[in-house]
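Entry 14. Structure prediction run on the chain below.
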Amino acid sequence: MAAAVPTITLNNGVEIPQLGFGVYQVPPEKTAETVTTALEVGYRHIDTAEMYGNEKGVGEAVARSGIDRGEIFVTSKLNNGFHRRDDALRAFDQTLADLGFDYLDLFLIHWPLPGIDVDFVETWKALEEIYAGGRCKAIGVSNFQAHHLRRLFDETEIKPAVNQIEVHPFLAQDDLRAFNGEHEIITEAWSPIAQGKVLDDPAIVAIAERLGRTPAQVVLRWHIERGDVVFPKSSSRERMAENFALFDFELETGDLAMLTGLDRGERTGPDPDRFNYIP
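Output returned:
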C-alpha cells in the first residue's frame, strides 16, 4: 500500500483526506471502472457532483470494492437547477439513491449563481436541514467568493466546512484562501494543475528535474504543503499512482514561494460572479 494520506479536520470535527480523486468529465459508462482503479491505487476520497452525471458509477465502485464504506470519503454537489429548498432536498435524496448510500460525507452548493431568482442563502438553509437530519456528515460550498460567504455568516446558522475553488499556480487565490482560513473553512482546490497549463512552466520543470519528480507531482505537492485539499483526475492507473505519490518528498521554502509567485489571476473555468449556467 502507498503512503498514508494525511487528513484535515473540518470545523465540525469530521476528518477529510487531503488528497482525493476527482471524477469531473469521467464518462458515466467509465466511472465505475475508473473509480475502482483509483481505490486500488489507494485513494479513499472521491469527489463527484450531480452535474457530472456519474454518481451511480461512483457508488458502484465503492460497493464492489470490498472496502468498508466508512473508510471512503465521498463528496457530491448540488446541481445548479435545484437551488429552491424543496428542489434541493429532493436532489439530495436522488444523490443518495444514485450512489446507493444511506449517508454522504460532504455535500456542497456547486455554484452561487448570482443571476438567478433563487438566492443561495435559501439553498444553504436547505443544506442545513440535510445536515441536521444526519444523512450528511458535513456541508460546504463551491466557487463562493468572500462576499458570498459573508452573507452566509450573517443570515444562516452553520458555517461551511469547505469552499471548493479553482486554485493552481497561475491562480493562487491567496486572499480568498486566507479568508477561508480566518473563518475555519478548508480550501479545496479544483483544476489543481490548470488543466495541464502549468506543467510546461520553466520554473516548475526546473524544480521537478532537481527533485527527480514530475511537474504534476511538484504542483500537487505545492497544494498539499499550502494546506489545501486536492483531487486530481486521471483515467490512467500509472498517472493515478504518480499523483498519489506525494508524501515522500517536500518542497523547499523557495520552491513554494516560486510557485506561488507564478500567480497571474488566470482562470481555466468560469468567474463565479458571472456564471449562471443551469443544465
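The mean pLDDT is 97.
Filed with the rest of this week's runs.
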